[in-house]
Fold this protein.
Amino acid sequence: MKKPLFFPKFALLLLVILGCNACGSKSTPVEYKQADRPLYIDPVYNGSTDPMVCYNPTTETYYMYYTSRRSNVEGLNGIESIHGSPIGIAESKDGGATWEYIGDCNIDYKPDENPTYWAPEIICHEGTFHMYLTYVPGIFTDWNHPRDIVHLTSRNGIDWKTESALELAVRKVIDACVIQLPDGTWRLWYNNETDNKSVYYAESPDLYNWTDKGKVDIETVGEGPNVFWWHDKYYMIVDEWKGISIFHSDDALNWTKQESPYLVSGLEGVDGSMGNHADVEVIDDHAYMFYFSNIPSETDPESGKKIRRRGSAVYVVELQLADDGTVSCDVTAPCMINMLSDK
């Protein structure tokens, strides 16, 4: 939650000496590295969006899965470049500070010509990887087409076998997020595009059989709901296109919105601007938020003007919890990270 789930500039090293354990001896110091900024840009299409990260216990590394928009393909309009996207994979061997592209997911769900894959949600449970993938039946130049959330499984996190297309409230749904509750129930949140982009949810006893539960009672319109457990509360973040809003809950059913600030609102004065569609991973009480935004502009050597680069980059920032319960982040500060610290 992603609590119950078990889960490339050389950077500054920060040594953190952990406290004594129950036996009175000190544990091995943990090395934290400063994450790259931007963290990662897809080397094929320049369109790395909708990132989510998952620990791979076989390789003992982290995999980042993302929608690989075809941003640098000439002749495509904006909407068309967002379709026809594969799911890219990058690997981090240093706990999340640096990432290297290792290829695309091999997905066997191809009922239509030129399939579009968006916004993967991936967890590893009892040795099996589960992906909940948004599927669009083709490449289009408008948004007026069906979208399903498809369940696939894998033994290695690369090759994926279809299990089912989920029967949810409608056939125009995107952006799944899955966690396991304390009683063992699995809960899936998603975006219902036919209901003003509201957040809905479904439940399952086993990750395979799902029952839709309807609309979540929260005041938000946006995409990419992502739920995680942190400091004894559930939190949900939503991409509201003006920054990332955040909600908290004691039971993952009744949600209270934090009035301000929006996370990565684009007002911080850094190149990269506003944050979009994020994933949060909690490691040893550190909450790392992976999001996508613009690729930093380049400076023209002759005019000195900044030139916007087409495409999207992934960034990471650590969330901070104030004494009054307010969650914030500082994208101007270095992000020191090691998601292998609990492995």
